[in-house]
Write a structure and sequence with these properties.
about 50 residues, mainly alpha
């Protein structure tokens, strides 16, 4: 029974965390924060334009 209670608590916490991420739009904010460094990295790569 202890394992069942712990599993239910873990699932409830995971559900609550996903709802907070959704309500606060944190996934989009993370992508926006990572866009500039990722663009800088991508632009610094060498290109091979041969087909």
């Amino acid at each position: 029974m202890k394992i069942l209670k712990k599993a239910a608590a873990a699932l409830g916490a995971a559900f609550l965390a996903t709802q907070v991420i959704y309500w606060c739009n944190l996934d989009t904010k993370l992508v926006k924060a990572l866009e500039k460094p990722m663009t800088k990295h991508y632009d610094s790569l060498e290109r091979d334009n041969r087909l």
